[in-house]
Amino acid sequence: MFKLGLMGCGVVANYGHIPSIMNSSKFELAAIYEPDVARKEELQKKHQVEVFSDVELFFQSGIDAVVITSPAPAHYQNVRDAARYGKHVLCEKPLAMDDEEAAEMIALMEKAGLMLFTAFDYRFSPVAQMIKTIVENKSIGDVRSLRLSYIWNNHGKYVNDDQIPPQLNLRRANRMIEGGPMVDCGVHQIDLARWWLNSDVQLQHSEGAWVDEYEAPDHMYLHMKHANKVHTMLEISYSYCFTAKEPVSHFIYELIGTDGVIRYDREAKLFEMRNASGTTRFPYASEKNFNGMYEAFALSLETGQTGDMPTGLDGLIATRIARRATNELIQKRALMQASK
Ligand SMILES: NC(=O)c1ccc[n+]([C@@H]2O[C@H](COP(=O)([O-])OP(=O)(O)OC[C@H]3O[C@@H](n4cnc5c(N)ncnc54)[C@H](O)[C@@H]3O)[C@@H](O)[C@H]2O)c1
């Protein structure tokens, strides 16, 4: 059994990581590092584990590996500390704030002989795993194009719009400040496209819109040309219905091949393949799978092999593509405004 330490105990730790750690026979949640001291007692009581606000004491508490679920700007320092204490890492996405940080994190971990993984949990959904198998065994022929779309409101612009002034939803606001929807959410789909196709991205082009008022565009389109000539179109939004009383969202994977298509529609709970042999309906599953990710993480810790685990490099590449797509649009917009 591996003793895990968790760094940053907020939303994703509480709904995704901790339940999976508790659920696993391979892991024990042994310690939490949470700098927000006001929540120490509440977290200790809830998770029945020692909560540290001193990072040195956390690392000296006898843990084998760490999971980093802090906000993106903290990942760099969290990984540096883990490397200093010789701990393997599973780090939430986006891996880092820029390429330099990510490259340094990877180099530090490699130098220390440690594994660094990025928490792209979408890879472990039975849906994503089935798509990988279908692509590999060519049941829809040769894949030529991917249409991936996740347009939603990231829980809305306001938490309470009945108040005057309305209360801003900081969860969404902070993610917009850290880079916007492509960097925060789109990295999952960029990773899936690379992983399903087993092919890197050679060319990219983005377009987007500013529905809200942040530096980053909040509704974006990214086109990627992979080395194997397959095209991926990714649409991502944090402003779709962001002020609507009754918001709706769309989450879609479509893979178009020379002999058929794969269709996954989360909202319609639909997962099917249509090809010359007919229509095959697969069991619906959520797009996320933290349990599956922790099974794969345990296997990697046991064997020292990567397996299906997304590496630090996978994290760096997805974040690089997402930031480039976002930054190009920010720069283009600034040039257009300057030339007015
Ligand atoms: N894989 C997924 O499906 C998924 C889903 C949601 C969020 N995320 C990612 O997880 C990360 C956390 O997101 P969240 O929504 O849980 O954020 P959050 O703000 O709810 O929680 C982050 C926690 O980290 C703590 N923290 C702040 N600074 C820290 C530091 N220097 N070291 C350690 N902890 C620190 C905060 O006090 C807070 O408790 C982000 O990178 C986000 O993009 C991933």
Automatic annotation (TrEMBL):
Domain of life where this protein originates: Bacteria
Residues of the Gfo/Idh/MocA-like oxidoreductase N-terminal domain: 2-119
Keyword flag Disulfide bond: no
Keywords recorded for this protein, A-Z: Oxidoreductase
Record has Transmembrane helix as a keyword: no
Protein name from the UniProt record: Gfo/Idh/MocA family oxidoreductase
Pfam families given in the database record: GFO_IDH_MocA (PF01408), GFO_IDH_MocA_C3 (PF22725)
Domain GFO/IDH/MocA-like oxidoreductase: 129-263
Family, per entry: Belongs to the Gfo/Idh/MocA family.
Coiled-coil intervals: none
